[in-house]
Amino acid sequence: MAAIELKSVTKKYGGLKAVDDLDLIVKEGEIFGFLGPNGSGKSTTIDLILDFARPTSGTITVFGRNTRTNSKYIHKKTGILPDNFDLYDRLTGREHLKFAIRAKNAETSVETMAKKVQLTEDEIKRRVGGYSKGMKQRLALGMALTGNPDLLILDEPSSGLDPNGMKELRKVLQDEASTGTTVFFSSHILSEIEAICNRVGILKDGNLLTVAELDELFAESGVKSTIEITCVNDPPQNQMIKNIEAVNECQIDGRTISIKYTDTSQKSKIISELEDLDIGILDIEMKTPSLEDIFTYYIGESRRPEKTEVEV
After folding, report:
1. How many CB atoms lie under 10 A from the CB of residue 115?
2. Residue 121 CA from chain centroid, whole number
3. Average pLDDT estimate for 56-60
4. Rounded-to-integer distance, Cα 17 and Cα 19, Å
5. Do domains 2-77+150-219+296-300 and 224-288 have the same CATH topology?
6. pTM for the whole thing?
7. Burial 116-154 (b: 16+ CB within 10 A, else e)
8. Interacting residues of 245 by C-beta distance below 8 A, sequence separation 6+
9. Vertex 22, ends 18 and 26: CA angle to 5°?
10. Distances (CA, A) of 290 to 215, 248, 298
11. Where are the domains of the chain?
């Protein structure tokens, strides 16, 4: 069963289509990254999944249940960390966590949830009005995690976190996923998405441009990786290197060869064939594209692919 499934979902606000004929399946137990520029429809999609807004057309199910008729059931199974969450400045961190435990009828303690998100006993005694942004983010995450939800929906969860906080966030989410929890993760910090997500979807102007595992995205986009090789001997002619299978481009500058290629599975073969040319390899530097390169490629494209449903 899919954790989340959207079929032909459209959401209009007046004449504006915030989400346009969206098909999406998120698998149970995966960490799914949801990307898109501001105004792309990410937050609207999250609101639709949570039944905070109703689609103009199409259907949405969470764990096989229609969101329109099973909102209470779905919310009980879901931990939510919205982008603009509200905390009460006059209440302590302990009071917030206690409220979450009671609301979800969870069999856990305030101390257990505080420890999970790296909040100390002294910190949860303090009023939230004196918290830093990162501390507020960790408290809100702790509230979302309360009750061992089957689904976590996180909108910009790393906002306000320092590098150590982001590292701890990754560990928490990986631990949750390892127990079978599905994580739906929207963020503008692409390095975080790249470090933690199994698959990603890219949304632009309400249209889903692609959904794939990261390796598939790199191959599909055609964004090239680079091998830079420093030679002991003079390099062979440019054309000899271009004749190597999987080499897309080649530039030679003195005894430095720069090779661009798209098929990452051919990396070792390219290096092996270069060694056969007796160039005397002194140094090899690998430069691989990042998710930011892939994101820029897709968002820069004005195309909209044929509508396909993502299979489980």
Report:
1. 14
2. 31
3. 97
4. 5
5. no
6. 0.79
7. bbbbeeebbeeebeebeebbbbbbbbbbbbbbebbbbbb
8. 266, 269, 273
9. 120
10. 11, 19, 13
11. 2-77+150-219+296-300, 224-288
* Residue whose tokens read 């329109």: 68
With contact defined as beta carbons under 8 Å apart, do 17 and 45 qualify? no
- Which tens digits make up the pLDDT trace of 148-171? 999 999 998 887 778 888 888 888
Which CATH architecture does the domain made up of 2-77+150-219+296-300 adopt? 3-Layer(aba) Sandwich (3.40)
Encode pLDDT of 210-256 as tens digits.
999 988 887 777 788 888 989 888 888 878 888 888 888 889 999 89
Cα end-to-end distance, the chain, whole Å: 8
Strand positions, DSSP E, the chain: 2-13, 16-27, 31-35, 57-62, 65-66, 78-81, 151-155, 182-186, 199-204, 207-213, 225-231, 249-253, 256-261, 281-287
